[in-house]
Every structure is written in structure tokens, then in C-alpha cells.
Input
Amino acid sequence: MTEEERAEIWLDSFGVEYNKKMRFCELATTPHAMAEFLSRRSGEAAALVGKETAERMQKKLNGEYFRSLTEKYAKKGIECVAYSSPLYPEDLRQIADPPLVLYCRGNTSLLAERKFAIVGSRHTPPQIARLTERYASELSRHFVIVSGMADGGDTAAVTGALPSGRVISVLANGLDHVYPECNRDLCERVGKEGLLVTEYLPEVKPRSYLFPARNRIIAGLAEGVLVVSGGEKSGTRITADLAMSYGRDVFAFPYGVGASAGAGCNALIKEYAKLTDNLVDIAETFGINLTETEEIELTVPERAVYEALREGETHLLQLSERTKLLPHELSSVLMLLEMKGLVVSCGGNRYAALK
Amino acid sequence: MLSKVCSFALSGLEGVPVEVETDINNGLPSYELVGLPDAAVKESRERVRSALKNSGRKFPAQKITVNLAPADLKKEGSYFDLAIAVGILKATEQLPHTDLAGIVFLGELSLGGQLRPVAGILPLLISAKAKGYKTFILPEGNAREASYIAGITAYAAENLKQVLSHLTGEAPMSPLPVLAYEGAPAGEGRFDLAFVKGQPAAKRALEVAVGGGHNLLLVGPPGTGKTMLARCIPTIMPDMTFEEALEVTKIHSVAGVLGGEGIVRTRPFRSPHHTATTVSMCGGGTRTVKPGEISLAHGGVLFLDEMPEYHRSTLEALRQPLEDGVITITRSGGAVTYPANFMLCASMNPCPCGNYGSADKVCTCTPAAIHKYRSRVSGPLLDRIDIQVEVDSVKYEDLASDTREESSAEVKKRVERVRGIQRARFEGIAGVNTNADMGERELKAFCRLSPECEKILRLAFDRLKLSARARSRIVKVARTVADFAGEAEIRPEHLLEAVSYRSYDNFS
Output
């Protein structure tokens, strides 16, 4: 670990506001320089970070504090990737406000690979969630999938990519906490098989105002962002806008007129995002080769039901009229198609086909 | 002088003979009632005194001691009024030349000497008959339920005077005629599947559930007819046999909810409100252990509308009776076992706002909120519900349309055929009447899966992330579906239909 990295980790541990700690870093880059800055120009330091913090910093200049700090992180299984570290992703370093230290749990080597973000809102329709899982699983062969940990779209993306272990979840809270609670298991698995990343100290609790800042890390890490769902006021909009401003490619699923779950996606497509209804749309942009899934053999009634469903979300009764099958016969065919991953139940006895 | 008169007390569903001994002595006028009477029994003194006076008899101004034997059994209720009145008359020699031996007196007295009906006559008479008692005098209000029991001589009286003139031979009453059980009342009921428009998936699930005795969960937005569907379940269940009807009537009689019919002929449908307490649901009480809703639903349907709204502990208390079909309620005074073999039908909304999966309304719940709502029903309980089906919102055109829907009678025929198949299958196996009752041994014997079916089941578990506990439940439902199709072997399509009824398990 270089002197600069040590300095950055040490500085970050005081929980100073982002702008102030970055200014501090500009003034002094090594532990030695920081010690000198604190003692020689104590007035300036106090003005920058506040008198109390400056005094606290002065007291913690010894190596003892840093050792106990790193020991504490090691005990919690946290690896610190500081701005000056060679592990720190170059893409993230390019953005206007890169995090000073990334607190990581899991496989940090994933940071060095090509990354692609998939984000969605909490209100993600079930068929879109399944589709997202599929996309994430396919794309994880070429990219490490970056997402959050929220319910709905993010969970689907993480779940899809998790079997390959190529997944990074960026959190808006410290690694001592889990948010949302219902994803405790998933969070634990990502920490073991993939990678959890946050810029916050372990004890920081999730707060709504931390999420927009978290989104800049998702956008900054990835080469491209796919927005799978999002209403008009969704946080996915922030991620997409940031990604756009960083010069990343933005993709979005199209939604039908009046579908509130996707109003934000449609707005993105209107402005700058690339309409995506096929994996090839993404593959072309990056010059990668994604083979379409192999043809699955279907029996005659299965084929009929599948074709009928491709016209859009359909109710069991309409489906029964179109295919001339009795509802209870249909339910076994649908079940089989669902198990083959071609059809998804949308609730309310309505079904949709997955492309 | 001493007199002895027979009466009966009730302990659970069992009748216990009680001998009412009355002794009259000279001394200061007093009335002593011994033999562990409760308040209602003790108060009989005032009722008996007025009733005797108003029937033109004398209440002796002497020292009266009444003993209810056996003395160690707690006596409750107002069964003994008539017996005490007759005992006092006999002891004061106001009833000369009458033989009271072998006659069981039951009934409550009013101050005017009228006989009021008491709860639990049917189970009392059944156990009394088994113990060798043949002659009964009981209130007119209990006449109908008594007349379904053959092989006894029962007299129903309106008042004390009538009883006395019968005993003295002045105006003998004629014994009650024995009524034959007629089965369920014919004719159009208030509920019929013909009135439920659309909902083919839910109707099919209802039919399969009743056919195999499976429990059922209806999930759907508010106002989609979940309650209506549930109300139709009794209309497609097979008619009760006389033995079943007697058993159900016994429970209703003990609980005091028996109507004027005298016998319960239609399968009970109980829908306790979600504020129900555990005791009201399972039965209990401080002294008398009364049957709860689950026992009143014995032989019929227990409908829990809006299941997640019930108290958690109340729902959990259902688990054991759902497995065993009986409930044993233990109090310091002793334990009582009531039958509780019912079909559970529950309904719930898919999410707190109720619109999840609705075609035209937007669900405003977050997945976490939905998850929390659904987790109010515990996994082990959900596990005991074999069939889970979605009821979706009905379109206006469906409601207004004139398309003829199948009536309950037609569905009932199919259900009875399937029940017939099961009766033949489980001939001679104790405790197993329907597919839902099957244990591991019966599963092995009657539900062999072909390799193709095994493959599908394995795939279903992989893809749908079903819990391992669901396996035997799925196979049982598949057995019922196959019975409806008239097949001896479970075929893949039967299995797939059964799997589709578990889709609610793996909500993520």
C-alpha cells in the first residue's frame, strides 16, 4: 500500500464532508504532508474541516490509529480501494466527483473488468423482472453487471448475474447494514460470490439522500447503462442522466402508452437513450457477440399458446378463446412454458411471453 | 321422605347420568342444593319455587335438601330444573302412585311453569340411549332434534302441568314420532355457481379442491367475488349422510346454535370475522368448554375472509386441527375433544392496495410492502393449503352477459363421482377418506409417478423454486386431477395443473 493510499483511507475514516475531504487531499497527499499541514497550518485546517475534527485528526496521526483502523476493516471483511490504488477503476476516476475510498466486500478483481450497469425501479412488472434476469445473465458473459440492491429491477439484475459471480452491487449505506431488509440473503451472497461496493463508512445507515450520490458510482463504473423500468420521478433517471453526462451509452426498454412503470424509460428514449428490445441492440454497440438462445422444442399446443402470447399480455379467458383450449388444459401448457422460461405469469390470471 | 329422579349433564359431547335426590325434613324452612352446582343450577331454586306455585302445587315450607349425584362432577346449565321440581313433588307426596324409575327429565322451567328448551339435547339423548335409558321427558322446543333418534320413547311437554298430568295418568301424552332423515333440502339455494360469471380458473380450482378434500386459498383484488365463490363450496359438496348429519348436529346442539330444524341437513359454512379470538376459533371457556368455529365448521367449510388480517396466533392454532381433524381443548377442569374436520377456504388480497396483477388499476405497493403483507400468513400454514388460485377482476361485459354458467348441481355430480373413486380406493384404510388425507404409505401405493412425471416435477422444483414440503401436496392434488379425468395413472398434464396451483408459494 502506497503512502497516498494510506493517507486517503486515514482521511476518509473521519467522515468529513465530500467537498472538504477532497480539498484536504489536494492540499496534502501523503501522511507526512497531512501531519505537517495539521500542525503548521492548524488555523487553515480548522477552517476547512472544523475545529473539533481538526483536533481529533491531530490526535490520530500516529500509526497506532491506522493499524487499528485497518484491523477493524479486515475483521469485517472489508477491503479498501482508495483513489490512488491501482485497483481503483479508471472509468470511475474520470468522473467529476469520484469517491475517495471504495469500501468493498467480495471479489475486488471484478473492478478491473468491463462493466455494464442494469438499473430499474422498485415498481418493475413481473415479466420485465424476468426479462431483466435473462439479460443480466446473458450480458454477464461479457461484462460484470453493476446494479444496486433495491427491490424490483435491481434485484432482478443482480439475481440474473449472480450465478456467474460477475456482479457488483453499489450500496448507499455502510457495509454494517443491509438495505432493503428483504434482500438480506441476496446481499450476503453478492458479498461472497460477487462484490459489494460503497463509498460510505461501515456504520453509515441508509438514507434517502444518499441514493442520488450512489447513482453516480453506478454510472461511473459502467461502460453503458440499461434502464429496465422507471416512472417519471424514478431514481433511474438520475443514473441515466449522469451516465449520459459521462459519455456512456444509455439503453432503455420501451413501454406501452400509459404504462406508468415505464414512463421514465420512454422519456429517456425520447431524449437520448437507445431503444432496446433485443440483446443484439446492446451487443452491436460494444462489438461483442451474443448468440441468441438456442431454439427450444415445443409441441403443437405449446407453440400455439406461445404464439398467441407473443401478441402481448393476455388473460386466460382470451387465450382460451384464441387457442380453443379449456382453461384447465391451458394452465398445464402455460406451466410447462413457464418452466421452459418462455412465459411469465403477470398476476391476475394474465400471462406474457418472453422474447 | 326421599325421592330419586334421573337427569343428564353434558361434558363435551358426552352425556353423564345425574341422579337428583331430594329429601324433605321437618325443621326451619330452607333449601340446600349440593353436588357442585354452578350459578345457573343454584338459581333453579327460585325458578322451581315459582313454577310449582304457578302450576297449582305447593312448595313445601320445610327443610329441603337436593343432591345432584355424582357429587364430584361439576353441574352446569339449566338441565335439572324439571327433575328438581318433580323430585320435590315426589318427596312431598304430591305425586302419589307414580313410578319415576327409568324416566329421564330434562328442561328449564320458567316462573310460570313453562318448559324452556336447553342446548345439547341431541348428544345427551344419544349417550343416554347408549347407556340404556329409554324414556325421556323434555321441552317441546327440543322436540324436533329428539325425534331423529329411533329406539327411545320421548315425550315433549310445553309446561310443568302437562308433565304432571302425564305422570299421574290424567292426560297421558303420546310419544314423539320418529322422523326419517331426508337429506339436504331440495330446491334453489341462495348461492349457486350458476350465478358466478366467468372465473373459469377459480371454478376449476374449487371443483378440484372439493373433489379431493383439499384446502383452498383464493387470491384476488377486492370485489372480485372471492366470498361468493367460497359460499358456493357447500353447494357442490356431496350430501351428508345421516351419521354425518347427526355428528354435526351434536356439535351445533352443544353450542346452542341449532335452528328450529332439529337437525343440520346442509353442510355448515362458518365465516368468523377476522377479529375472532383464538378461543372463539378453537373452542374453550372458563368452565364449560364450548366448541369453537372450527368445530362448528366440522363436515363443512371454514371460510377465513382476508386471511392476513386475522391474529397470527389464531391462524397458527389452526395448524394442528388441520392435520388431525379433531381438537382437544384442555382446561384445569379436564380435557374435551371436539371433532374439527373441515375444509379450509381462505381469501386474501394480492397486496395491501389490492390491485397487484389487476388489468386496469395500478398497484401502488412496493415489493417490500407486498412481501410483508403476504408474510403475515406463515409458511407452515400456507403449506397446508394445497390449492392456491387467483381470482381476477370481472369485466362489466361478463357480468351483463347471458352466457349460461354451469350450475352447482352439475358440478356436484362430478364431485360425487370423484369422491366415489376415492371411497373405493381407500376402502378399509382407517382415517383416509379423500386424496388430501393420504399419508406417505398411501402416496407410495396410489400415486406412482412415471419417469416423465418425475422429470417434470424435478424441473418444476428447479425453475419455480418450490419448497421441498410442497412435493407430496402437489402429488396429492395431481391424483385428484387425474381422478377427475378418470385416469388410473397420474399423467404429466395432471401434474402440471397441480403445480400451477402452487404458484403462490414462490412469490419473490
